[in-house]
Amino acid sequence: MRQVERAIFDLRRGLPILIRGDAGDLLVHPLEGCDDDALAALATLSGNPPALALTRHRLALLEREIETRAALVPVAAASLADDIVDWACREAASLPADIDLRDADPIHVAAIDLMRIGLLIPAAVVSAVSPAQREKVEALISEGTLLAVPLAPIAAYDAAPSRFLKRTSEAEIPLSHAERARFVMFREADGMREHIAILIGDPEAWSDAVPVRLHSACLTGDLFGSLRCDCGEQLRESVRTIDERGGGVLLYLAQEGRGIGLANKLRAYTLQDGGLDTVDADHVLGFGDDERTYGVALEMLEQLDIARIELLTNNPEKIAAMDQGGVEVVNRRGVYGKLTKQNRRYLNAKAERAGHWLEEVLEQEGEAELGSLKRPFAR
């Protein structure tokens, strides 16, 4: 696992790595930091022309439908790095008609997975190491210039539900909507993500079905009050509701932008400014409809000894994740923010594209005005 974490660190710095597979070794360069010099260096070091590994979501936007998770776009020697970036994440990009896709092997999918885990654009410039270049590549690995990581640990790392979640620290922090609140910090093994459980009220007095909110972090909404979403109001309303119901837990999960990270979320916002909805904007960048998983939330609840909950959510996927993970959802309560002219399209997309229960909000009239704050209701 430590090699995988080091590989993610190097990729986030814009450095290439090598993945060792059963059929051979693959040089991998992140899209970020891939200029013409880096592209030429990759081809020279590997002894083979590079290719661009893209997800099926991105390829669909390029009008190339595939059934598998990913495919390879061959990169001609004359191609510029700007062309590759366009193919990977530009809305108006198109592939030349004469380019035929190649099947992606598990090693190519692993390269994309490393980008996604590292919160980078899920695309990778890859090149198989030729026999003639193997000695030179091994020398770079031996001197520590190039990091090599086996294929198997990458798949195992991505499949780990919590990446060895560790409870690290805690403190009492009175809140404006819940005077008795205790923050408990959990850290993933790679150190990239930290999650917080906010324990509201006296755990000894909690109801049998503990009120719980799974809240994905939203810097722009939670902290700065962005009008593009309703996240900040949902956060504060959830704290208030949990306190009013005798206490419970809010899990503040480091899953910015439905799991794509803050940098990619801002890229998606720019695409939305051009007319795309929130789901299509993520597809342009190569992501799926929702990249979040809830293994971390399940382990946090397990460590807190919580197995029966009343879930504050409008998202059916969260209920399904809890049920599948062995946590009994006894009841659901909706939780809403205000409807604004800036967030109406976002909320519509969540309702229509992801099946969120938002009828109570979207039925409001007068989109130019701030809608009234809706209180949670029981299912």
What does the oligomeric state look like here? Answer: single chain
Percentage of helical residues?
Answer: 25-40%
Please state the second-level CATH architecture of the largest domain: 3-Layer(aba) Sandwich
- What is the CATH H-level superfamily of the largest domain? GTP cyclohydrolase II
Structural class: alpha/beta
Outline the biggest β-sheet: 7 strands, mixed
What is the tally of beta strands? Answer: 14
Named CATH topology of the largest domain: Rossmann fold
How many domain regions? 2
Query: What order do the strands of the largest sheet run in, or round the barrel if closed?
Result: 5-4-3-6-2-1-7
- The DSSP helix count reads 16
Q: What's the shape? A: globular
What are the low-pLDDT stretches, counting only 5+ consecutive residues below 50?
365-379
Distance from N terminus to C terminus (CA atoms, Å) equals 42 Å
H/E series, N to C? HEEHEHEHEHEHEHEEEEHHEHHHHEHEHH
CATH top level label of the largest domain: Alpha Beta
